[in-house]
Amino acid sequence: LRFDEKVRVVVFKSEVKGVFCAGADLKERAQMDDAEVGHFVKRLRNLMDEIAALPVPTIAAIDGYALGGGLELALACDLRVAASSAKMGLIETTRGLLPGAGGTQRLPRCVGIGLAKELIFTGRQVDGQQAASMGLVNHAVPQNNEGDAAYQRALTLAKEILPQAPFAVKMGKLAINRGMEVDIASGMAIEGMCYAQNIPTRDRQEGMAAFREKRPPRFIGK
């Protein structure tokens, strides 16, 4: 996906009705020794980092339970859409654990430090509507009879992104992600570097031409 230039947006959905991702298999985990657990969680954390580093926008379609590592997967995505009935939570403390695949870092960046601490300390689960009100998800939608309302809304969101200039979107994601980790002056410099990379693109010229000619732009990602 990272190197396929035809890919414009990635949507993560589950094939299991009522469950986005229920997190680690604790029965399997119970069979591991301490070293194996550490290795397993490190690999999981690396996987989430790779998902977060995908150059194109990513959307998690949460149509059911997203618990523990399942919510960490959703947090590794750029955008999240949930069914109102979906249940989300970093529930690790209820099992004698703490989030180990990015949850302690990505949740505070998403909802703020105080709320993230409350959710992690209590292991509380929230539904889609509550998640939307706290900024954990971008949109909450009523579940449909097929059980894929969040996925359908995620597709609609993806289709809003698709017509936009692909390289500009990628640079926008990079500037936001890198800029959020530094002070604003450094962030401005990062934005400037990303903008400079976009200036010589054919899509920028096309965008200007389309505006002058009063027609929709035809972006090619170059």
Automatic annotation (TrEMBL):
Organism this protein belongs to: Nestor notabilis (Kea)
Record's GO cellular component terms: mitochondrion
Domain of life where this protein originates: Eukaryota
GO molecular function: enoyl-CoA hydratase activity
InterPro entries per the UniProt record, alphabetical: ClpP/crotonase-like_dom_sf, Enoyl-CoA_hyd/isom_CS, Enoyl-CoA_hydra/iso, Enoyl-CoA_hydra_C
PANTHER family linked to this entry: ENOYL-COA HYDRATASE DOMAIN-CONTAINING PROTEIN 2, MITOCHONDRIAL, ENOYL-COA HYDRATASE-RELATED
Family the entry assigns: Belongs to the enoyl-CoA hydratase/isomerase family.
GO BP, one annotated term: fatty acid beta-oxidation
Protein's recorded name: Enoyl-CoA hydratase domain-containing protein 2, mitochondrial
Key word Lyase present: yes
The entry's keywords: Lyase
Entries under Pfam families matching the protein: ECH_1
